[in-house]
Write a structure and sequence with these properties.
Keywords: Electron transport, Heme, Iron, Membrane, Metal-binding, Transmembrane, Transmembrane helix, Transport. This is Cytochrome b561 domain-containing protein. One of its GO terms (molecular function) is metal ion binding. The protein is an all-alpha fold. Helices cover 77% and strands 0% of the residues. The longest helix has 34 residues. The N and C termini lie far apart (100 Å).
């Protein structure tokens, strides 16, 4: 393998990691966080960041696709190339769905939200899977170890998934008193009412 081809393969991998493995999951995390926001200004900031990250993700994925089609031998005889071909089409479908967002409260809003959520979640998961298949294909092509990159990518995905699940339960944890907020924990009726033994003691106390 020539140094030029090796560089192009590495560049292709970096572009698709930045697109599918970083920008897209972070964009999904941001829009998920916006569901907890009541402040209109912060809600708009999170939404605009979501849009910017997803647009950058589409552009980087398209650049990686053009690089692959132009310089690589694409026989589509392995899972990485087949999944990648599907991703190149789906990511543009998702972008078009995103730009066709109906106004909140309109009839088609619920259907649009469901389609956008299903496409976005599925696309992100498929992109992450294809990064792993890409690392395997790179190892077979170059005989170079990709163990370190696999470990680092797994750690990154796990951290983003943890943040996604944690922020979803943040309000619930605060209400349960696991994380103390500004409101005091109100004791339950069982904690307030005296026990039968306490009642007997009160009755035996002389006047």
């Amino acid at each position: 393998m020539s140094p030029e081809l090796s560089f192009e393969i590495a560049l292709h991998g970096f572009l698709l990691w930045a697109s599918m493995g970083f920008l897209m999951p972070v964009g999904i995390l941001l829009i998920r966080m916006s569901n907890r926001e009541e402040c209109g200004r912060r809600l708009k900031v999170l939404f605009h960041f979501h849009v910017i990250l997803q647009v950058l993700s589409v552009l980087l994925a398209t650049t990686g696709a053009v690089l692959s089609i132009k310089n690589f031998d694409n026989a589509f005889n392995n899972n990485h190339q087949r999944i990648g071909l599907a991703l190149y089409g789906l990511i543009w479908v998702q972008a078009l769905i995103g730009f066709c967002r109906p106004q909140r409260g309109s009839k088609g809003r619920s259907l649009w939200y469901f389609a956008h959520w299903v496409f976005g979640t599925g696309l992100s998961a498929l992109g992450i899977i294809n990064i792993y298949t890409g690392l395997q294909a790179y190892h077979k092509r170059t005989s170079r170890s990709t163990r370190l990159w696999s470990i680092l990518f797994t750690a990154e995905v796990s951290f983003i998934a943890f943040l996604y699940l944690f922020q979803d339960k943040w309000d619930y944890m605060q209400k349960q008193g696991v994380i103390l907020g500004n409101e005091p924990i109100i004791p339950t009726d069982q904690e307030i009412s005296p026990t039968p033994r306490d009642n007997r003691k009160e009755m035996n106390v002389p006047c």
